Predict the 3D structure of the following.
Amino acid sequence: MFWKKHHYLLSDAHCHLLDFEELPEVEFPTFCVTTRPEQFCEARKLAENNPLIKAGLGLFPLYIKDEKADLLAFEKELKNTRFIGEVGLDFTVEENLQNSQIRVFQKILDLTEEKDHCVLSLHSRRSAEKVMEMIKGREATFILHWYSGPLELLDDLSENIFLSLNPAMIKSRTGKKILRSISLENILLESDAPYVKMKNGEYGSFLTSRVVDSLALIRGVSALEILQKINENYHKVFD
Ligand SMILES: [Zn+2]
């Protein structure tokens, strides 16, 4: 009942719409991230057809093929957007690949800093310290997507750093701690669909409602209040 009435207040700050088996109907504000610069063109078409969608220019760290060529392709598309994602680091690979990711991410940060008001959705698997160190003091809006690093790193989040929380995080121990402790000022919602799936295989932006329900329960605040605050955050970041 509650969600039937208020679902339009939801938002999804990290969703791979292009990787769905079938393109879903997008009914509330959604940041469509991509993983390769070539994918951006398609995402942009989606955004042109639906004002609720923002298209992200991405270069996923594990999908870097050729540093120079990939950065060139990225730079070329960057002329068309200030929305970036998914980019970042993933330290589940060997060291020389990590170093290549660091060089690419550094360059992306430099390029985006030259543009005004860039928004970046960041991957930081097993690399949260490095990602935080690299974005520190930079001028852009950063969204740490599916953050799973040390909690201490989140102690003094500056106002240009947000965390997008997804329905998988409400089940993990670290995730729950994050839900309990970070300021509402820094929270966004994400589905990371189709990659975050429920036990029954369900995925999609509507599942972000479960994050709101959990936040309400953990914090003893009404779901509506949380929903309105996060909606405000989303528009502050993306409008
Ligand atoms: Zn993702």
Observations:
- The domain at 2-238 is CATH 3.20.20.140 (TIM Barrel).
- The helical segments are 2-6, 40-49, 67-78, 95-114, 128-135, 173-181, 208-219, 223-238.
- The mean pLDDT is 96.
